[in-house]
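Title: [Solved] Formate/nitrite transporter family protein 3D structure

Original question kept below for reference.
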Amino acid sequence: MSYIPPSEFVSHAITAGEKKAKSSAKDVLLRSFMAGAILAVAAVFAVTISTQTGVPIVGAILFPVGFCMLYLMGYDLVTGIFVLLPLAYLSGDKGVSISDVVRGIVLAFVGNFVGAFSVAIMTATVFTNGFTTPPSIVGETLAEIGKSRTVGYKENGMGGMVTIFLRGVFCNWMVSLGVIGAFVSTSVAGKVIAMWMPIMLFFAMTFEHSVVNMYLFPTALLLGGDFSVLDYLIWNEIPVLIGNFFGGLIFTALPLFVLYSPSKKKMSKEESEMPLTI
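Solution (posted by the thread starter after getting help):
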C-alpha cells in the first residue's frame, strides 16, 4: 500500500527535520530561495486565473500546483520549517537544539523573501512593460490586494491585528498539514493529493501566508499600491509570520508528536507486551 500510517510518517517527518536543521547555510538558503520563487509564481498564477475568470475558487483550486512542485523538489518554506524543526527538537534524540531551530527559521525566512522578491520584480516589470505603461488588470488587482490587506486591517486597530494574527494561525494549520502530507504516501500521486487539499482550503479562505505575502505586497508596492512598507511589515508580514508559527506548532506539530512520536510508539509496544492482571 502507498499509504503510510501516522505512527510511521511522523518518524519520517522528524528525520527530515533533523536533516534540514543540520544542513549548511548555503543549502538552506538555496532551497528556501527556490521555494519562495516557485510559490510566488503560483500566487501570481492563481491571481491571474481568478482575475480572468472572475471566479476566485478556480484560482484556489489551481494554486497548490506550486506548493506540490516545490515540496517534491525538496525545497523549504519557512512555514514548513515551523513544523519539521520543532518536531525534530521535541524528539530529543536527534541532536537538534533550540539554536538549530532558530537558525533554520531565520535562514529559511531570508531565502524565501529573496526568492519571492525576485519574482515580484520580474512580474512587476512584465505587468508594466518594463515600467513604461500603467499596470495590467492583474497588476491592478495585486495593488488593490496589497492595500486591502494592510490598510484594511489597520483601519480596525487592535481588532484588525487580532484578525490578521488568527488568519495566519488558520493558514499555517492548513499549510503545515500540506507539509506533513508529503510524508503520508510513497507514491507521487498520493503525496500530491494529500498536499493539495489543505493548501486549496487555505487559499480559498484567503488566510494569510507569510511567504505568499512576501510576493504579493512587494509586487503591490512596485505597482503603486496605496500603502507603505511600514504598513506591510506591521499590518501584515510580522503578525502573519507569528500567527503562522503558532498555527503550525500548536495545531500540527504538537498533536502529531504527542500522539505518534517514536517514544510513544515504543511505549505502546511495551505496554502491549505487559501481562494482563485482574
